[in-house]
Predict the 3D structure of the following.
Amino acid sequence: DDKYRRYVAIKPAYFVKYDHYETLRPQVATQVYVSGHTESNVNTPLVRKILHYFEVGRGMGYAVMEYINLTCAPTPDKAAEALRRLSKVPAPNYVGIGPAGDGLPLHKLFKDFTAPLSFSCTEALERYL
């Protein structure tokens, strides 16, 4: 079902995302990095700040984030501009292609949404594809 999402909004304060910790942990590391970078830059879009991350039985991870109330849905042009600005966030010097934390690249491009190996550069990814 494409309407199923792994998150809960607890308005007006929190947004909670949950998933298996192996999938969520690298996403949290990436979001912590990006939100830290964008927080001090008024020219970048708002990125939810991770307030707390925890894992509980059966491998579930939970990321508690600040809730950002959108006043209106972004237009396609504004969404494109936000993506352009986010693409300018420099990658951490300790990461190749993929999440800022440990883990393989995650994308629907890969079987089961996870790359079978890590890629050190875009050329390596292009050779694989």
Observations:
- The mean pLDDT is 85.
- Strands lie at 7-10, 14-20, 50-56, 60-66.
